[in-house]
Design brief:
about 300 residues, eight-stranded mixed beta sheet, two-stranded antiparallel sheet, globular
Length: about 300
Amino acid sequence: MTNATRKHTALPKAEILIEALPWLTRHHGKTVVIKFGGNAMVDEELKAAFAQDVVFLRHAGLKPVVVHGGGPQISAALDRHGLVSEFRAGLRVTTPEAMDVVRMVLAGQVQRELVGLLNQHGPLAVGLTGEDAHTITATRHRPVIDGEAVDIGRVGEITAIDTGAIEALLEDGRIPVISSIARSQDDGHVYNVNADTAAAALAAALGAETLMVLTDVEGLYEDWPNSDEVISRLTASQLEKLLPELSSGMVPKMEGCLHAVRNGVTTARVIDGRVQHSILLEIFTDEGIGTMVVPDGTTDRRRATEGES
């Protein structure tokens, strides 16, 4: 093979890197909060690709922060312990006994595995829970069902965020991996907090440039189930109007995106975690994938002036 041929066959790789250049420049030094969940959390190949993406972001000069839940793992562990999984208003009813299992699974299993995957690429990831250093403080959440506030146990509503421990880790070049459990300053109990909600609250408190939520769908559909056309971009006000029509599973994700962009986060994105390297495709390509939510008044162009007014 001649040198000319070698150069020719390698050219597409160079073109891909060049396409990424403006996005590398734009995002350099910025904080990106990533909610890890769905199939990406249980499929071995997707887990490995997710870890590679996050490490790539870190080496590309971004500051990734990972927030995770663990619904499938929690359900499996509760079954093993003979505890029934019950949901009300889309939230898991969490007894004190169930909370012990939730805490064990999130902090002792899911987080440990994710930290291990990231640290295959170097001494980068450090695990935290919302309990650590008062990172997330919560109070008991009582959802309103049929006009009445209902007690669903140790399910938490966020009351405060302290980003000090996360910021110290980012300053040290680490990747914080945060489990969505929190302690209450009122009663001292530990609460299970929705991971989508926790990721959005942390993104806002950190002044993140981007919140990315991995899901098991391509993005927000324009007219589901009549159409599988994904909405590429929408403003906060447009999203707010759509919220009442969304499926229960998408509501906390999209409410989180809305909260983020209304509290200083430049863009919030819902992307398909079933696609390998979906994070890199969204951040470093001209087309992007998934649905991007932007603050009101942001320019209409999907990518070229992303996040600018």
